[in-house]
Amino acid sequence: MATAFEQQRSSSQHAALSFEDRFGLLVDTEWTAREHRRLTQRLRQAKLRYPASLEDVDFSTPRGLNREVILSVSTVFDGPLVEKDDGLPA
What we know:
By secondary structure, the chain is mainly alpha-helical. The protein is built from five helices and no strands.
């Protein structure tokens, strides 16, 4: 948070913002940094064999993957899949 504060102090763009707006930006920056550290720690603890993501899935190879199903599963943490009754644990 101290780094973000120093960046705000040295930036002329932030000087025009109100205290509430600047404070909100500091809080957002801190929250994002903490979430990034948590994710990094979880990934390290998971000891995954290969770094992979849903964006890396190759749908052109004939493996019987349904693009719509895979992409709907990717939104499980955004809420729509959890709100629907798809038989998946919430």
